[in-house]
Fold this protein.
Amino acid sequence: MEAMTQFLSENPAVTRGNGPGPWGRVLLVLLWAGLCVVPAVSALGELGLVAGGSGTPGTLRVVSCEDLGREDLGPGGVGPGGVGPGGVGPEARSRYDCRGWFTSDSGEAVMEVPAPPGTEVGDVLRARLTPEGDRAVPAGAKAVLAALTLPATGLAGLGFLPYVVMHWLGVRRGRRAAVTGGVLITAAGAALAVAGLVAAHA
């Protein structure tokens, strides 16, 4: 923060024709960091739940699914049943509201709750009940990987931010390390995000 303040005091005017001025750069850095950090932080609660940091462990049995109608996917969209009889057409897909019975491992909590998206009647899965008791989420390694998608995306987005800040501050020492670190962080975050997406739709 001290280095940024010094940078602003030494560069009070906005540089024209050579990118944003000092205040513009500060704003861009804050927006960049905010876009990466805020979604990641907002997903930590869900990550803690599926990882076992909160909630009640148990088993969820899906007992009913209500058809809520079709959801427009736009041109070229294909519903889960495909096109034609038995499907939902090329531009829409059916939406379902499923519910199930959650039974805690201790047997003390038995209640009806909304089931996670993508479940079907008869599905039985390991789950965790939220502390509020309003829903159950899948548990296990696949669920944890899926919950890591947003934090991993934020991590990937932050990879080259240190290099950009160093470049704008005129700091030359350590730039090569910043680039190397940016490549590694971005690659690791992107790979984890892709794995999370695959796990979420598996």
